[in-house]
Amino acid sequence: MSGERVASVVVDVAAEATDKPFDYLVPPELEEEVAIGSRVKVPFGPRKLVGYVVGFPAERDLRHLKPILDVMDLTPPLTPELVKLARWMARVYLCPWITALQAMVPAVLKGKYRRVLRLGPGFVSEGFIAGAEETLVRALQKKGELSLKEALELEGVSRSLVRRMAEKGHLVVEERVGDRTTRKRQTWISPAQPAAVLREAAGKLPKNALRQREMLHFFIEHREDILQPALLSRLGATKSTVDRLVDKGLLHREERETYRDPFAGRSFEKTEPLSLTPAQESVFQKIVAPLREGRHRTVLLHGVTGSGKTEIYLQAITETLNQGRQAIVLVPEISLTPQMVKRFKGRFGGRVAVLHSGLSHGERYDEWRKIRTGEVQVAIGARSAVFAPFPDLGLLVIDEEHENSYKQEEQPRYHAREVARRRCAEHGAVLVMGTATPSVESYYRARVGGYDWAQLTERVHNRPFPPVEVVDLREELRSGNRSIFSRSLKEQLQACVDRGDQAVLFLNRRGFSTFVLCRECGESVECPHCDISLTYHRTNQTLRCHYCGYTRQVPRECPSCGSSHIRYFGTGTQRVEEELARTMPGLRVIRMDVDTTRRKGAHERLLTAFGKGKADVLLGTQMIAKGLDFPGVTLVGVIAADTMLHLPDFRAAERTFQLLTQVSGRAGRHDKPGRVVIQTYSPEHYSIRMAAEQKAESFYREECRLRKRLRYPPFCRLFTLLFSHPDRVKLMQAGSRAARFLAPRLPEGGELLGPVSAPIPRIKDRYRIQIIIKYNNLTDEPTGFVETLRGLKAGLKDPELRLGIDRDGVSLSAGGDG
Ligand SMILES: Nc1ncnc2c1ncn2[C@@H]1O[C@H](COP(=O)(O)OP(=O)(O)OP(=O)(O)O)[C@@H](O)[C@H]1O
Ligand SMILES: [Zn+2]
Ligand SMILES: [Zn+2]
């Protein structure tokens, strides 16, 4: 047995006891395939498990080792760099190693599937073949397809033969999940004989074989391949007609693999680089200087809305590709709009893979595979695209770096910003974080020199910023206006529509959905399983819990006191829409919220309609706040700016400032000047005032001053421990025990707060409490305290108790206990 290699494998069981690599022998026949990052099947106790090869230990004891049973992919799904990254993530974000590894591969690779072989389009039967190759080809010709297992049972057929043939295109290896193919195939029909032969055959057909004759004539004229569905619809024929002609050897039918391109059928107009303005040029240089030297830098690009950041990304990517390296662009899911995709596809065409949540598993897998095989060099996508398996990453752009959605709220609870920094450091790549409204953390870090700082303070071609008017809603009430719209906003809206322009009305969803309130006792109707008000959905007259999905009919009487004086309260998008219809009849409104965009493609359809001028007003929630660029929009209205200010979250002011600044940036981006109206109950609040006055610098200074005084990030870091249990008493006991355990073990500068009731004290019948730990370590390196937390988690005895640990959570009111 000497000379055999040993591989360390992390198996796919996310449990404490299995959260470490196990050693296996690499059998000689798999020697060539097994690499770091390979997915393998291994025996584990009585079971067979899937796992990832994470290393080849030098020290080894071959006794008792079992062999690896199988290698599951021809190309390892992960690179050694990603395997290493996963190790780091497991430590930093307190998750099992396998959970981090799994986060990096497409969902298709996590399910059960079988591998099937077929002859590939590159196979030419005339070529000389012999031996095992011939055996395999003959078998495939006979059966059409074979499972990999069946193929390997054939005389002399080995994995390396299969791999070689696949590389030459003689074989296609396909992964199938259940019955669904994960690689899409399409059927192509082509003439199998010269035109003369077809003509002759057509003449010999019986009179009533009309369809067959038509089809033959079609191929006499069209000598090229055609997709079967296209052929059938063109001739109004059925598949059986094709079947007959194929049987007679007149037509040829072939299945070819295709990528499911979600943007198929859409062409993207090729765009050329714009010549950069001097301000853009100087930012561009800050990015490409380290890029050319292959030096890792992080650049915070603080550029006002419409300052031309995207154009800089595009040109920096071109530079990266010219160097033979690859680039990743991260955008928040909601701004991964067709508009955005168009800009990248327009510049880089087929060199771009797009990864977003609207894709089916199969489509996502296709895009991922293009990245893994090197077919594309640019990946654009939401958070998880940070794991795009490029071998030589040169540039990573995080657009709208302040966005919450870069933090994953479930295991592994990583922040894409941190993962990106880690990857870029490893590759000697440049990380560009662009935004008009940096997170306070990034702003501070750039200020103290941790990041290179690049600023764009002017819009392209000096287009002016729209003037912002702040309307005090309390004043409106005092003067008797009970409408959702202030007099000013209403006037502006009317004027805008009269000019033939368009308006965007923005409503913050959080804390502002419509709920039902009893006017006698003041109680709102709550979810029986979660301590939270139910939300009113007008379309089907129901009340729904947004946390657990509980739904009930709108009650006629108050569930608390029996009074019949209940009314809907709050301002949902639906209510704004109704009020618009009442006060400004004839106005054409497109509403965009979770309800109208649930269906696939709806988001895009609505935006396109608005862009084509099919509506006067675009009314929506967060999802319309950023990225949109419509020339016709000259008015932006914010219905209520302060709904977020009152959330129990130290980032409330930051979020308010960011949102208002972003929303305001949607007006007057082109030739026409724009204006903004912000309605609020707290006009004097600094976040609202400074957003309106466009004083970013002042806002960040003020916010840093407050955070420093109250000791919040970036002046400390946080762990949030969320405990939940169906039994409130047991939960409280567990919380106190945990606090007692942790108190003497805190890290440097540690401070333990709690346990206190979580912002939402009960969800799905589980009570929730939290402990917050502040500490000083401002580097990303895991501390000994992480081990303490692991110890705490491992030591939980009560199977009903759940503990979720979040490092640097972005929202104190969210967070799970998984
Ligand atoms: N150098 C340039 N010359 C001419 N037009 C430009 C130039 N750079 C950008 N633009 C145009 O200016 C507009 C704003 O640019 P871009 O969308 O790149 O800005 P941005 O900073 O990414 O905006 P936001 O963050 O607000 O979405 C776009 O219509 C873009 O085509
Ligand atoms: Zn509920
Ligand atoms: Zn009541």
From TrEMBL:
A biological process term (GO) from this entry: DNA recombination
A molecular function GO annotation: zinc ion binding
UniProt: Zn(2+) 1 binding residues: 518, 521, 558, 561
Domain Helicase ATP-binding: start-end pairs: 290-456
PROSITE patterns assigned to the protein according to its UniProt record, in alphabetical order: HELICASE_ATP_BIND_1, HELICASE_CTER
Annotated residues for binding of Zn(2+) 2: 527, 530, 545, 548
EC number: 5.6.2.4
Residue span(s) of domain Helicase C-terminal: 553-707
Cofactor: Zn(2+)
A GO CC term attached to the entry: primosome complex
The protein's role, per its UniProt record: Initiates the restart of stalled replication forks, which reloads the replicative helicase on sites other than the origin of replication. Recognizes and binds to abandoned replication forks and remodels them to uncover a helicase loading site. Promotes assembly of the primosome at these replication forks.
HAMAP family for this protein: PriA (MF_00983)
Family in the record: Belongs to the helicase family. PriA subfamily.
Subunit structure: Component of the replication restart primosome.
Protein's name according to its UniProt entry: Replication restart protein PriA
Organism phylogeny: Bacteria, Bacillati, Bacillota, Bacilli, Bacillales
